[in-house]
């Protein structure tokens, strides 16, 4: 779940034999990314390692999408978080209550199997069980969806990216797309896949990684700070001042593929924001 939002696996996919920490090395060299973009992202506070050009813009920190439009926005002061759960400056506007509709393609080219539909429904039910000011509903018409779930391209799936998403816009709308690895049906349970989807939904409504300050907590390997950025990294009151893999937050940067329902701190964060 590398959030930016990308959700990296710590277990090997069926067709692969490397671990998540090895997978990170496969994306260390930027691919077709102009140097001025790399410099700009670095100045904005993002970790420049592993930037990849994608259709929507750039994929950074393994699961966070930065669009060209975002790069053209006026710069804001960088905020450096400590070791806690945190959120972006932009959140979803609710006006007391807001239902966010979600669509997943189930037929035709690049469609998802029932496994993914069941996982999305489970992720939606986890949020709705919290009785927040935001709720989610799956719809069958893409034109009426606030968030569309679509497939990652095959190359990104092969190198171990589980999913990616962006953050809410300045108008208070959730990010409008979640990209998912479509090759996980035989290696993840429905509940494990629901955790991946819930993680990306968390990014769409403004949540950042619980272990932002040190990805090695969930991803292994050497300590790695994702870098502060001008999208905001604001402490959520009531959440702990440290992160552990054992606590099992669904917003940890990486997953071992297991089921991670919202823990108490996740619930505190969601309740505070929404």
Automatic annotation (TrEMBL):
Classification via PROSITE patterns: PROKAR_LIPOPROTEIN
MF term (GO), any: metallopeptidase activity
InterPro entries in the record: MetalloPept_cat_dom_sf, Peptidase_M10/M27/M57
Pfam families named among the record's database cross-references: Peptidase_M57
Signal peptide location: 1-20
One GO term (biological process): proteolysis
Keywords per UniProt: Hydrolase, Protease, Signal
Protein name: Protease B
Organism, as annotated: Flavilitoribacter nigricans (strain ATCC 23147 / DSM 23189 / NBRC 102662 / NCIMB 1420 / SS-2)
């Amino acid at each position: 779940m590398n959030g930016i939002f990308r959700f990296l696996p710590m277990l090997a996919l069926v067709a692969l034999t490397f671990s998540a920490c090895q997978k990170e090395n496969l994306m260390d060299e930027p691919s077709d990314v102009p140097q001025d973009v790399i410099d700009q992202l670095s100045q904005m506070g993002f970790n420049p390692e592993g930037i990849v050009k994608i259709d929507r813009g750039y994929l950074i920190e393994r699961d966070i999408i930065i669009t060209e439009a975002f790069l053209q926005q006026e710069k804001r002061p960088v905020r450096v978080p400590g070791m806690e759960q945190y959120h972006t400056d932009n959140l979803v506007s609710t006006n007391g209550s807001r239902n966010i509709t979600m669509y997943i393609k189930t037929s035709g080219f690049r469609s998802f199997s029932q496994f993914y539909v069941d996982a999305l429904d489970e992720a939606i039910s986890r949020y709705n069980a919290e009785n927040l000011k935001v709720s989610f509903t799956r719809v069958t018409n893409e034109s009426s969806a606030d968030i569309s779930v679509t497939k990652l391209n095959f190359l990104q799936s092969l190198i171990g990216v589980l999913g990616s998403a962006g953050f809410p816009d300045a108008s208070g709308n959730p990010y409008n797309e979640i990209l998912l690895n479509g090759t996980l049906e035989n290696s993840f349970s429905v509940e494990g896949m629901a955790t991946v989807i819930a993680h990306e939904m968390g990014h769409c409504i403004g949540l950042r990684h619980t272990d932002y300050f040190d990805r090695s907590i969930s991803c292994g390997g050497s300590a790695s700070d994702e870098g502060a950025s001008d999208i905001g990294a604001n402490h959520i009151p009531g959440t702990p001042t440290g992160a552990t893999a054992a606590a099992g937050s669904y917003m940890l940067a990486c997953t071992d593929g297991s089921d991670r329902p919202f823990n108490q701190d996740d619930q505190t964060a969601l309740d505070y924001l929404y």
